[in-house]
Amino acid sequence: MSVDLSSNRLTGEIPREISELVGLVSLNLSRNRLTSQITPEIGRLQSLDSLDLSRNQIYGKIPTSVFQIHGLGVLDLSNNNLFGKIPMGSLLQTLEPSAYAGNPQLRGLPLQKMCPEDEKSPKQTVFVNKEDEDGLITQGFYISMVIGFVVGFWCICGTLIFNRSWRYAYFKFLNVVNDWVYVRVELIK
Fold this sequence. Notes:
Layout: E1 2-4, E2 11-12, E3 26-28, E4 33-34, E5 50-52, E6 59-60, E7 74-76, E8 81-85, H1 90-94, E9 105-107, H2 116-120, H3 130-162, H4 164-188
Parallel strand pairs: 1-3, 2-4, 3-5, 5-7, 6-8, 8-9
Helix pairs in contact: 3-4
């Protein structure tokens, strides 16, 4: 189920009852005049794939319950009055900074503006070279391909080489298949 009430000049608060729509997949309340905080109960919408609250006058901090929505693929909170630190969570830090644009008091990843407590405690950053990572994956692919070929080849051919009865049965089977295909081709002509 999708709810799109964008550009309707809605005013007031986002109703808390919206969190009871547990089957809701998409919620678009953008381009209105909503003036409330984001309700923490929004985390109960586990089916939610898209949430657009952009271009309103929503204020306050982003509730941590937003990152508990595991299927959330699209989130746009831009052009509001949100402030504070973006909650830590896999989804919220991987979004484009444009999802938070127009909230001058908002801080933390993925924005360039960091929180004061983040700046005081220097963290060691581990840089992973994308080319090295791709090279390792490619090398692993080729190694596993060679191992698979060698094992497969020797399982089939080794059995035929060392087991005389299987070798005779295999070539007898090939002759039967060859004769059957030959007869079918001749009948079609």
